[in-house]
Model the fold of this input.
Amino acid sequence: MSVSLNPAAYTRIVPAVVFDIKRPHLLVERSLMVTRRSWVAMVSGFFEPLFYLLSIRIGLSALVGDIEVGGQLIAYDAFVAPGLMAASAMNGAVFDSTMNVFFKLKITKLYDSVLSTPLTAGDVALGEIMFAVLRGALYSTAFMVTMWVMGMVESPWFLLSVPACVLIGFAFASIGMALTTFMRSFEDFEYVPAATLPLFLFSATFYPVSQYGEWGWVVQLSPLYHGVELIRAANLGEWRVELLAHIAVLVVITVVGSAIAARRIERLLLT
Amino acid sequence: MGSQQSPVVGSSLVKRFGDFTAVDGIDIEVAPGEAFGFLGPNGAGKTSTMRMIGCVSPPTAGTLRIFGLDPVADGRKIRARMGVVPQLDQLDNDLTVLENLMIYGRYFDLSRKAAAARANELLEFVQLTEKADSKVDPLSGGQKRRVSIARSLINEPDLLLLDEPTTGLDPQARHVLWDRLYQLKERGATQVITTHFMDEAEQLCDRLVVMDAGKIVAEGSPQGLISKHVRREVLEVRFGYGLNESMVPKVDGVGDRIEILPDRLLLYSDDGDAALSELHRREIIPESALVRRSSLEDVFLKLTGRTLVE
Done:
């Protein structure tokens, strides 16, 4: 027989990609190398929490006053701030994993050259997601400190809001990157705000989920909602078993999203 | 078995993209330390073959072994020992020249210190030390190509893949590159080169295959191919546009073989000057006549009926 089919080329499935991740940190190192020179661009991210929180403090909070959450009476700004913190973690992760990744994937062809080295598609996907999360964690810390300075922090457990933002960052960077691999041109990115804006507005960000009445379950479908709940619980210093479920949702999204991203990068570049 | 394993062995290699067959069942074996070439026009399947060897494109069928390993199962291990200069440079535009080399070294698990030392050494080798802190974008085509070559050497590869290394470069830049590649060969690195320039293949390759439409149509050393397929010299004569073909009966027997092109006739002979004298003896006076040595272009023309660079 002169031609033998190569079975290995056809039997590779998602887990093979997921387990073939050994050097994602090297792509993070590359991003840090790039950022070292353009650190000024990063500073802008620190103003975001300040603007968000000031607008709430000056405007909404004075109008709304205190609200009752789970039997506890808290100031409206202390209620909304965790929601904004979660939304800001989402927006940062989405931005980093969509436009930036698309540019490197399709325009500058960065990943083609990376895949000629011992790095794999899995390393590329996770490395880019990790950097998005790392940058997000920095901004989240700034957010937390700003909230504390403005007197919106209710409990020392609020320190856990940063790891919660890391979870949100992982989940949204993974989804963002997975979706980016399906985008054909920059026009396709018009759909990104169409997805993130409703999430931002309807994930129990500005009012408790009880406002939705019997439609509250729909909100459960929003990944952001699970992040909001985590951060809000951290701010109130309250522990509930459901928090584990919120964490699990974000973890599952991360694993599935990054596996799809890695698999798609492989399909696109290793043809 | 010899003492050293062949770095690249492929048999019945096929690469298909949907209905299109880019590589149609080729057999190749590259010996250690050899400079091996793929010569052919655009679309012959050279780059597809290179990508399969580079472990970034799984073969559709056939077997391929690089360093004795399967590129699909052991791609990571193989790539660790390989250097790749892709057809388009694919340098990292966000980084400086030096950083490009350093981060690439890191991808190959060099320590930061080792990567920096090696990067500086390689910049010297490609004579770009003064550009170390420049970004990639402002560099000329030839300079970018040299950065690409330096980058491909960061891991001291056992096998170097060069996909059209000098396409788009001016003659001066080509010669600088050829010189560097020759030095690398002297040091024992195995090279696989694709090109559609016959002079490049003659300069760089110990052995080459001529590809056309996904198939290998000839194989041998540049000189071996020329002496096997064409005569030592060529007499090129022009009689004016449209008149060349009508002159064929008159020049019959002047060379051992005639090739008819739209703008000229090629008369192959071991002695081109003697052929020209014979023309004059027959009182045939062409518009212009030129005697030159045969090249791989002539081999390609004979094998495929088409010229390499159209």
In short: Confidence is low (pLDDT under 50) at residues 1-15 of chain A. Residues 21-269 of chain A form one domain.
